[in-house]
Amino acid sequence: MKLLMFRDSGHRRLGVARDATAGEIVDVAAASGRATLPVDILGVIDGGDDALRRLRELASSPAAGSVRKLADLELLAPFDPPRGNVLCIGRNYQKHAEEGARATNTQVEPPTIFTKAITTINGPYADVTINPAISTSIDWEVELGVVMGRAGDNIRRANALNHVFGYTVVNDITARDLQKGWGGQWFKGKSLDGSCPTGPWVLTKDEVPDVQSLRLRLRVNGVVKQDANTRDMIYPVDAVIEWLSVGMTLLPGMLIATGTPEGVGFARNPPEFLRPGDVMETEVQGVGLLRNTIVERPS
Ligand code: ZN
User: Fold this and answer.
1) What is the CA radius of gyration of the chain?
2) Rounded to 5 degrees, what are φ and ψ at 134?
């Protein structure tokens, strides 16, 4: 099932895609009548199997007047915000770890963990604002996003995917100059406002039969910059969940960005960074595609 948020008369509303009819979305609030149904995707996750079952029923036989055309909707980030900072894995693809080491003349290092502030969350087709007075090296990172569905700590790898609700697309936009400054921690360079486009929806996990065989691509102005596959992850999704949850509870509605493959801008020769007017297309095949334009905000 495909769940999304859209704007209507200034409000965020929950939509669910109709299985049989591509391009049709059921406006859950308009369809629910007197039944109490979730108003957003966090509510669906918290509602568990019962909420999913009721939404499935709604999608298969929607009430009159509740069906909207996807093309007519202004889609918003699925979570704004998710439960807590976006949890991120750095260097989770070997070739990306190697390109980064080459570009900075350092040793290849193992994967690491960092987070992005909740204020980075941005919509699937929203503009991304950059300010050259703050950073002149804004870079792209296509990533598979994992949405947690059940709370847990010390989750075993064999059981990890049972804690997943679904998947989405994340662009972990990064200010490389800030990432390398500020004492060497990554949080600041990863947390500029609006630097985490997400969406365009959350696909429930039953629609992704093998999360480790998804093609990831990122294009800038139509030119392919990243083209890889989730099978190349150093830590696959189940191992990421096991690793993150050691002594640290993962909550339903948390969003995990699972790392980016090779082809980022700073590691190119010469390095490439985003400029005003650039259009990024960030795609995880079978999950979705984000399209974001860079705009400049002068200081
Ligand atoms: Zn990243």
Assistant:
1) 19
2) -100, -45
Which two three-digit tokens encode residue 109?
């290092």
C-alpha of residue 61 to centroid of ligand 1, in Å: 40
Same domain (yes/no): 14, 106: no
Last residue within a domain, chosen from 57, 76, 95: 76
Provide the token pair at 277: 């007017």
N residues, the chain: 299
Q: What is the whole-number distance in angstroms between the Cα of residue 264 and the centre of ligand 1?
A: 10
CA of 141 to the centre of ligand 1 (A): 6
The pLDDT of residue 298 is above 80: no
Any domain includes 59: yes
* Residue 159: domain span: 86-296
Q: Tens of pLDDT along 77-87?
A: 999 999 999 99
pLDDT at 34: 63
Query: Residue 14 in contact with residue 45, Cβ under 8 Å?
Result: no
Q: Please give the tally of structural domains in the chain.
A: 2
Q: 249: which DSSP letter?
A: P
Centre of ligand 1 to C-alpha 256, Å, is 10
Is the pTM here over 0.85, yes or no? yes
pLDDT (0 to 100) of residue 20 = 64
Same domain, 215 and 278: yes
We report the CATH number of the domain holding residue 273 as 3.90.850.10
Q: Is residue 91 part of a domain?
A: yes
- What is the number of other CB atoms lying within 10 angstroms of the CB of residue 251? 13
Range from 14-28, 200-214, 220-234 carrying the lowest mean pLDDT: 14-28
Residues 167 and 223 reside in one and the same domain: yes
Q: What is the pLDDT of residues 119-177, one digit of tens each?
A: 999 999 999 999 999 999 999 999 999 999 999 999 999 999 999 999 999 999 999 99
